[in-house]
Amino acid sequence: MNFATLIWGALKRHKAQTLFTFLSVVVAFVLFSVLAAVRQGTSEMSIASAGRLNTLSAVFPGAPMPLSYYDKIMSVPGVVAADYFNGFPGHFRDPKNAVHVIVTQARDYLKVYPEYQLPAAQREAWFADRQGVIIGPTMAKRMGWKVGDTVPIESKLPHKDGSTTWYFHVDGIYKADLPATFQSLFLGHYQYVQEGIGGTLPDQVNTYSIRVGDPRDVTQVSDAIDKLFANASIQTLTEPETAEAVDYARQFGNVTAMVIYVGIAVFFSLLFIIGNSLIESVQERTAEFAMFRALGFKRLRLSLLVIQETLLPVVAGGIAGLILGFEAVRLLTPGASNILQTFGMGWNSVAAGLILSVLFGLLVSLIPVQWVTRLRVADALRKA
Question: Of 90, 212, 224, 352, which residue is least crowded by CB atoms under 10 Å?
Answer without folding.
Answer: 352
